[in-house]
Amino acid sequence: MSIPTARPPRAPTVAQLRSFLAVAEHRHFRDAAAAIGASQPALSGAVAALEEALGAQLVERTTRRVIITPLGERVAGHARLVLSSLHALTEEVEAARRPFTGPLQLGVIPTVAPYLLPVVLRLVRDSYPDLELHVHEERTPSLLEGLAGGRLDLLLLALPAGGSAPTRDIPLFDEDFVLVTPPDHELAGQVDVPRDVLLDLDVLLLEEGHCLRDQALDICREIGADPRGGSTRAAGLSTLVQLVVGGLGVTLLPATALEVEAGRTDRLAAVRFADPAPGRRIGLATRAGSARSAEYDRFADELRQVLRELPVRIVE
Question: Distances from the Cα of 218 to the Cαs of 209, 214, 238, in angstroms?
């Protein structure tokens, strides 16, 4: 069989590659056709079309047997790789279409991660064993940038999420802020304390970039207070608590952080505000119109159930 070679080869079709690979493996047109569920004329036509597209002879046809040319053997090797990659592609897409499978890039703010992740990870481990969860602890601006750019899929943070790109917020719960002081402070252990006590206190803050810092400042501004923590700033809540223990001032902690942080020292006392206590709303945020929206809603529903063990008010 003479195959013209003047023109450049054209890309083969998947059907052509599959037919030729069957012939290369079985060395018999009838057996190859049966193996892929095609008629023998259709198989023969697909192989001939492949040779035409490539401008090269891949098969020597004799009356007794099929011989694959040296070039045909090399083409068969490439065909195996192409068909294997296509199979892997379809498997991955099929897996992604099933809820809670494949990778999920979850971003979490630092003032939530240490206190909620144990609950989240337990839920994922017990209920979604096929979900490949990857956790990224970052501050809110970085998380929102990652979500908008596709680096992250889902965020766990204080709501509203904000940001320049449209997001869809999924509320989980509301939690109160608790004032923490040294144990010998005059307010130590009190309850139903009005928030205007902050007017006379040195309220220590996290460094800039934390949404909890902005929330604490908003609470102080509402009552006309000016936090007088000076230049002292902390990168995380654990450090902030140690500054309180050291007598540098007082601070506001989310209720979900109190047990963990207070449990590390006996030099800390909690002060509860009168209703309505200042607080924050925590939830999930994802890109508006995400293809996995229904999956995230279901995840939020199940997450609310396991979060009931924490000192929070679930938002249904």
Answer: 14, 6, 22
Q: What is the DSSP secondary structure assignment for residue 172, as one 8-state letter?
A: E
Residue 291 within any structural domain of the chain: yes
HSE on the CB side for 157, CA within 13 Å?
32
Query: With 80 as the cut, is the pLDDT of residue 95 above it?
Result: no
For residues 53 and 48, what is the distance between their CA atoms, to the nearest angstrom? 9
* Res 93: pLDDT: 75
SS3 percent helix, strand, coil of the chain, rounded to 5, is 45, 20, 35
Residue 5 lies in a domain: no
- Do 64 and 18 share a structural domain? yes
Count up the domains in the chain and report the number: 3
Mean pLDDT of 112-128: 93
Q: Which of 53, 79, 97 is the last residue of a domain?
A: 97
Same domain (yes/no): 148, 263: no
- Using an 8 Å Cβ cutoff, are 133 and 245 in contact? no
Supply 130's token pair: 């096929």
* Two structure tokens written together for 282: 């925590």
Over residues 176-197, the pLDDT tens digits come to 999 999 999 999 889 999 988 8
Are both 255 and 209 inside the same structural domain? yes
- pTM across the whole model: 0.71
Give pLDDT tens digits for 35-65. Answer: 888 899 999 999 999 999 999 999 998 767 8
Q: How far is Cα 260 from Cα 296, in angstroms, rounded to an integer?
A: 28
pLDDT at 152: 92
Question: Which of these, 185, 198, 183, 188, lies nearest to 272 by C-alpha position?
Answer: 188
What is the rounded CA–CA span in Å between residue 255 and residue 290? 31
271 closest CA partner among 186, 200, 214, 206: 186
